[in-house]
Amino acid sequence: MVALAVLSALLTVAFAYNLSHFIAGIFISHLNPSGPLSNLLWLALAAGLGRAALLWAQEWLGSFAAARAKRELRSKVLLGVTKLGPQWLAKRKTSDVALLVTTQLDALDSYFSKFLPQLVFTCLVTPTLTAIIFGQDLFSGLAVVVTLPLIPLFMVIIGWATQAAQEKQLESSRQLAGHFTEVLRGLTTLRVFGRLKHQPAAIEESSDRYRISTMKVLRLSFLSGFALELVASLSVALVAVSIGIRLIDGSIGLATGLFVLLLAPEVYLPLRNVGAQFHASSEGVAASVAALDIISEAADASVAKAPSGTADQPRLESLVRAGEIVWLRGPSGSGKTTLLNKLRSQTDKSLISWVPQGVGLLPGSVEQNIVGPGVATDLQALRKAVRLAALDDVTLSAQVGEASTGLSGGQAQRVALARAFYRALTKPVTYLLLDEPLSALDASRAHDVNQAIQHFAQAGIGVLVVSHQQVPEATRVFEVADV
Q1: Quick check: helix, strand or coil at residue 418?
Q2: What's the rounded Cα separation, in Å, for the pair 223 and 230?
Q3: Are the C-beta atoms of 352 and 431 separated by less than 8 Å?
Q4: Are the CB atoms for 462 and 324 separated by under 8 Å?
Q5: How far apart are the first and last CA of the chain?
Q6: Which of 275, 280, 303, 385 is the most buried (most CB within 10 A)?
């Protein structure tokens, strides 16, 4: 893109040179426009058409580069979230992460396709065109050098205000998305306690804050564009007035004056475009900071993981051996789930099948939540997993709504158990980790799940159960304070 932009600038110089000398040849030298002089006009026309084609190619390449960069950035963010795990995600609003990898990163289009190439292009082309003007007319060159710094000065002054307004807009966007998501998740609870009627007003208030902050950003963007256009126009006018006066007294030729006058706007144009594209891409840049923070945090977390256990940090293989059922117990708040998550994070994920304490189901059918969406189903393993999880009161085609709506707490827990059992039946799993698998089950189904746990232990899988309920088949019992 930068190479095409530089070539486009050279074509601009060629266009200005040929057109100015064509006009001077007619009005000053009184040459026949249909003679050899017409070659200059054809060259100017070819340069203009070539520049138009290059501008189109720049736009196409910019869109392609932006799409590729966003795809790579999104992949790294999602990989980072996966590495950081559910404990990290539980401390944040999922709506913020969803908004980041969708709408906010889409705003990087202007940054990658326009601002970044334009910045490099400005650094190369603006000095070159200024040097050409100096070579043609010293006074015009001095006028350009004196007025050129005014544009970045205005950019910096307006940029400070734009950055603050942009940060407020992003915060308003996150608050609106988070509030709306939480209302959707808690519709049933809000209706039960009679608070549902207050939510439209609260959402409207969040929407108004987002609207006001967005309009502030737009006002500043328009102000920036107007200021840059005004400075550039006055600077070009200064060059034009000086050329006009000197044309009258004959101290500068028409060909040289026209050539400089045609090039003068092109000197200021890259800087104006940088300013305009900076404000257009500022939202994406702010979003990319959050994305890169997640990527860096995931990288730091990967480095920070201990390669082996210590006295204060036991390893999963030291607690659970193949074919054993280990019961990890302790009072509420003693750190059982924290210890389980730490053990899980130290172990290769492909070796683990896991049921978290906070069951998370996705919108879709029960079968999709067990097997996974878009995955070929092993029907025999699916039927066995459903039977072992005592999931006898839910059909596989039953639909699960947002936040597991449509299922009771016990049913959602048994769907999660069936999912873990299905993985253990279809993958070479070494450990089965269950966090409070019996908390929402009646005595009969709790007995069935205990039998399923014993079944997997007999198959050679090490089972670690965190539970307040009795695990009668446990071969070893640990108090969390003793681990």
Answers
A1: helix
A2: 10
A3: yes
A4: yes
A5: 59
A6: 275
Q: Which amino acid is at 141?
A: G
pTM comes to: 0.56
What are 261's two structure tokens? 């006058």
Query: Which of 480, 460, 456 minimizes the C-alpha distance to 468?
Result: 480
**How long, in residues, is the chain?**
483
Percentage helix, strand, coil for the chain under 3-state DSSP, each rounded to 5: 70, 5, 20
Give Cβ neighbours of residue 372 (< 8 Å, ≥ 6 apart).
none
Render the burial of 225-256: b for 16+ CB within 10 Å, e for the rest. Answer: bebbeebbeebbebbbebbeebeeeeebbbbb
425: confidence class by pLDDT, cuts 50, 70, 90 = very high
Contact 286, 167 (CB under 8 A): yes
Residues 6+ apart with CB under 8 A from 462: 320, 321, 322, 323, 324, 326, 430, 431, 432
Residue from 19, 97, 11 nearest 50 by CA: 11
The tokens describing 327, both together, are 């019961």
**In sequence order, what are the beta bridge partners of 195?**
none
Pairing between strand 352-355 and 462-466? Answer: unpaired
Q: Over the stretch 270-312, which tens digit does the pLDDT of each residue have?
A: 887 787 777 667 767 777 888 888 888 888 776 555 444 444 5
Structure tokens at 76: 């790294």
| One-character DSSP codes across 431-483 | EEEEESTTTT--HHHHHHHHHHHHHHHHTT-EEEEE-SS--TT-SEEEEGGG-
436 close to 468: Cβ distance less than 8 angstroms: yes
